[in-house]
């Protein structure tokens, strides 16, 4: 196989034919392929980093400093760098650090949809049950136990809508925890900032993802050290056929990293300096020979090569002797079907799939660790779809040479430095307006210093016209204009260059915080918005790389945590959350990573935070406002606002319920009072009747029948006691109702406080 003129060994071979020689030939072939034209590219990249750092090459200004092939000596100006590129890059670096990185983990397994539908149907079924019990309770209260039915029963259509909007698979929740843990442990936020810097300066960014010490790792690579497959349709490096990381390091570092693969003899050879080491290093990295470490330390080239080879796998179809059912099993390249299985009707089908290999060449002569990559990142749906551990992209290399933000600014930086140089030269040559005096006009007994003292101090030139030998009159005095008229023109040109560069980069003066004295808020905001549209393409392309890298880290975590994983991490709001993964569920989950638009999220975040003053004026709790200001993403604010809104709704509902209970209690008290008054009237009426009967009986029988009289008195006492008992029962009912209302009020208060605590957490 030929790639770019380099012969690559045949990859479609069984493992038995991938010998030591074949493996070394593969590594060497890809390195040779990478060497073609790579050194010029590395030099171009280094120039970009020099421009960012303000390091100028006087060769770029030769036509100014040596216009006729001869250097100008003792000139009153010097070529310097006046940075206009660095402030733009630094501002975008700062903006990136403040843009939220909002990611959502989803589960793309085939059963995810069915599980969601099953959970939805179960919730709807429970809702219908509650609706039935509610109707039953209204018709037959004795058949339903108190508290069995909640006060509010959601309708089935509301439940279905809620599931569609908010349902999250439990595996997705676990994946979200896993991603948050990785982001913290690998310091991904800080590393992404470094990668963003490379992307702005060089227009290239490269990353290394994988498993190290049973943990997923994430490294940012120097663009100068990376080369890869130049397929014109390739957007991301991980989808290519090969990638190489080639750099020079100290021999001691090589021994530290690769000692388990090196023999004692090889270690000794690495420690012996070779003349070509320095020369190769200078060619590869364009490092200055003034650096003493270049000659003092032994520098060793280390080339890590990753490529996609071919792997043969078999699918064995056989009849299970226990079940009698046809089964299928995947077998590796070395499998040989037993005769008895073949006689039983078993079949074996072979296919070729992709497999990522890795290999390292040290010092141009030692080949180590050339094997299939230990942690293969393959698709669960397509075993041939695998990805390289190296990822990256360029900003804009479609049908053209790649560019970067810094490369676009080089021409402006050059012109700006040149006109600054000419401005300094013009200022040095400018002598303003000079008056001319005849030296014979200086008064007698005055020297030149005294004469100039009065000229500069008083603005008066004292002259002696009686001095012998003077033949000139004051009318003969003159002035000489030695000011340089081009100074203002240079200043205008400099402002023009700076304005054009800011317009091209998309970073306007308003975006940098420079607002004119007569510039309104609306116009400045519009200018900032328009400038952000220019740079948004940079952020968007980089965001796609972020999404791919986060997906890779989550995929590699399956290989790293084969035995499960437990740990804890700190949330952005300072709270501690816990990770507890089951190895099987994690391994079988087909995760997907979704990144929201950070630019839109930041805009929403700023707008919502701008409403805090209005919220305070409208009675919002200070804790709610503080939570909003502390939020680092729009989803966090959205969640906090929903929680605050729910708490407010629950508080309002509790207040309404309490008010209704109070009104009901007042009505009950009024009814009891009326009953009590009626009972008192009834008691008085009965007393009057009894007294009247006794008096009538006494008149009827003046002699008195002691027996009848005593009986009437006893009956009167009994009725009085019955009325007293009824009155006591009524008072007890009043007290019981009051106690019940107090209990219900306390329960509502406790429930509300508990809910507020949950929302706060």
Can you tell me about this structure?
The chain has 761 residues and is α+β, with helices and mostly antiparallel strands. Among the domains are: 2-75 and 174-397, no CATH class; 638-760. The chain is built from 23 helices and 17 strands. It has helices at residues 20-35, 38-53, 62-65, 86-98, 111-139, 156-166, 170-185, 188-202, 251-258, 264-271, 275-285, 292-296, 339-343, 405-429, 448-458, 487-505, 521-560, 583-588, 598-609, 612-617, 622-630, 634-700, 706-760, and strands spanning 2-3, 6-7, 103-107, 204-212, 215-221, 226-228, 242-250, 299-319, 326-331, 347-362, 366-372, 390-394, 433-436, 478-481, 565-570, 576-581, 591-595. Strands 6, 7, 8, 9, 10 and 11 form a 6-stranded antiparallel beta sheet that branches. The longest helix is centred in the last third of the chain and has 67 residues, at 634-700. It starts with a strand and ends with a helix. Mean pLDDT is 78; it is low at 281-296.
How far apart lie the N and C ends?
Answer: 61 Å
Task: Round the Cα radius of gyration to an integer and report it.
Answer: 45 Å
| Number of β-strand runs | 17
What does the overall shape look like?
flat
| Fraction in beta strands | 15-25%
Brief write-up:
The protein is built from 23 helices and 17 strands. With about 750 residues, it is α+β, with helices and mostly antiparallel strands.
What's the layout of helices and strands?
Layout: E1 2-3, E2 6-7, H1 20-35, H2 38-53, H3 62-65, H4 86-98, E3 103-107, H5 111-139, H6 156-166, H7 170-185, H8 188-202, E4 204-212, E5 215-221, E6 226-228, E7 242-250, H9 251-258, H10 264-271, H11 275-285, H12 292-296, E8 299-319, E9 326-331, H13 339-343, E10 347-362, E11 366-372, E12 390-394, H14 405-429, E13 433-436, H15 448-458, E14 478-481, H16 487-505, H17 521-560, E15 565-570, E16 576-581, H18 583-588, E17 591-595, H19 598-609, H20 612-617, H21 622-630, H22 634-700, H23 706-760
Antiparallel strand pairs: 1-2, 3-17, 4-5, 4-12, 6-7, 7-8, 8-9, 8-10, 10-11, 13-14, 15-16
Helix pairs in contact: 2-14, 4-8, 5-6, 7-17, 14-16, 22-23
């Amino acid at each position: 196989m030929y790639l770019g003129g380099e012969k690559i060994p045949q990859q479609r071979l069984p493992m038995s034919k991938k010998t030591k020689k074949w493996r070394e030939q593969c590594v060497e072939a890809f390195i040779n392929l990478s060497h073609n034209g790579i050194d010029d590219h590395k030099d171009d990249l280094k120039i970009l980093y020099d421009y960012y750092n303000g390091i100028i090459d006087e060769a770029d200004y030769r036509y100014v400093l040596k216009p006729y092939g001869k250097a100008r000596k003792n000139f009153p100006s010097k070529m310097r760098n006046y940075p206009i590129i660095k402030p733009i890059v630094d501002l975008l670096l700062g903006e990136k650090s403040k843009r939220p990185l909002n990611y959502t983990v989803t589960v793309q397994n085939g059963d995810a949809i069915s599980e969601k539908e099953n959970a939805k149907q179960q919730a709807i079924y429970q809702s219908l049950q509650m609706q039935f019990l509610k109707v039953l309770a209204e018709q037959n209260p004795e058949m339903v136990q108190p508290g069995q039915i909640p006060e509010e029963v959601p309708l089935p259509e509301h439940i279905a809508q809620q599931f569609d909007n908010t349902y999250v698979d439990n595996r997705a929740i676990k994946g979200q925890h896993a991603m948050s843990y990785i982001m913290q442990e690998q310091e991904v936020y800080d590393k992404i900032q470094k990668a963003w810097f490379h992307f702005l300066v060089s227009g290239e960014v490269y990353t290394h993802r994988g498993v190290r010490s049973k943990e997923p790792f994430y490294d940012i690579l120097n663009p100068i050290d990376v080369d890869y497959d130049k397929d014109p349709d390739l957007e991301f490096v991980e989808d290519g056929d090969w990638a190489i990381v080639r750099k020079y390091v100290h021999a001691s570092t090589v021994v530290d990293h690769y000692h388990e693969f090196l023999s004692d003899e090889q270690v000794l050879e690495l420690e012996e300096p070779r003349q070509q080491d320095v020369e190769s290093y200078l060619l590869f990295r364009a490092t200055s020979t003034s650096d003493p470490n270049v000659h003092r330390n032994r520098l060793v080239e280390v080339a890590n090569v990753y490529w996609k080879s071919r792997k043969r796998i078999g699918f064995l179809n056989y009849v299970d002797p226990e079940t009698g059912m046809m089964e299928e099993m995947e077998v590796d390249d070395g499998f040989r079907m037993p005769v008895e299985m073949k006689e039983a009707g078993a079949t074996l089908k072979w296919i070729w799939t992709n497999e990522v290999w890795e290999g390292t060449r040290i010092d141009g002569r030692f080949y180590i660790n050339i094997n299939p990559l230990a942690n293969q990142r393959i698709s669960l749906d397509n075993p041939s779809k695998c990805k390289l551990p190296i990822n990256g992209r360029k900003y804009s290399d479609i049908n053209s040479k790649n560019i970067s933000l810094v490369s676009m600014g080089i021409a402006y930086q050059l012109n700006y430095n040149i006109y600054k140089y000419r401005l300094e030269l013009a200022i040095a040559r400018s002598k303003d307006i000079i008056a001319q005096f005849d030296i014979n006009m200086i008064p007698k007994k005055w020297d030149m210093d005294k004469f100039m003292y009065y000229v500069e101090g008083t603005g008066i030139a004292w002259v002696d016209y009686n001095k012998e030998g003077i033949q000139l009159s004051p009318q003969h005095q003159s002035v000489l204009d030695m000011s340089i008229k081009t100074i203002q023109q240079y200043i205008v040109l400099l402002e023009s260059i700076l304005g054009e560069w800011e317009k091209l980069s998309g970073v306007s003066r308003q975006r940098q915080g420079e607002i004119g004295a007569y510039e309104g808020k609306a116009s400045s905001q519009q200018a900032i918005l328009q400038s952000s549209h220019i740079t948004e393409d940079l952020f968007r392309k980089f965001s796609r790389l972020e999404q791919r890298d986060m997906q890779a880290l989550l995929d590699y975590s399956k290989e790293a945590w084969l035995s499960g994983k437990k740990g804890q991490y700190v949330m952005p709001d300072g709270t501690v959350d816990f990770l507890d993964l089951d190895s099987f569920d994690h391994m079988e989950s087909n995760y997907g990573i979704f990144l929201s638009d950070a630019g839109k999220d930041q805009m929403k975040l700023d707008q919502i935070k701008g409403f805090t003053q209005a919220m305070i004026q409208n009675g919002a709790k200070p804790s709610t406002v503080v939570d909003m200001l502390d939020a680092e993403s729009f989803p966090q604010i959205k969640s906090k606002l929903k929680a605050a809104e729910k708490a407010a709704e629950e508080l309002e509902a509790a207040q309404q319920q309490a008010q209704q209970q109070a009104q009901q209690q007042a009505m009950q008290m009024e009814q009891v009072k009326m009953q009590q008054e009626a009972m008192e009237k009834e008691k008085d009426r009965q007393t009057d009747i009894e007294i009247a009967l006794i008096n009538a009986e006494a008149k009827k029988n003046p002699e008195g029948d002691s027996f009848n009289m005593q009986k009437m008195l006893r009956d009167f006492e009994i009725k009085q006691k019955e009325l007293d008992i009824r009155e006591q029962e009524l008072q007890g009912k009043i007290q019981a109702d009051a106690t019940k209302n107090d209990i219900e009020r306390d329960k509502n208060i406790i429930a509300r406080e508990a809910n507020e605590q949950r929302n706060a957490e």
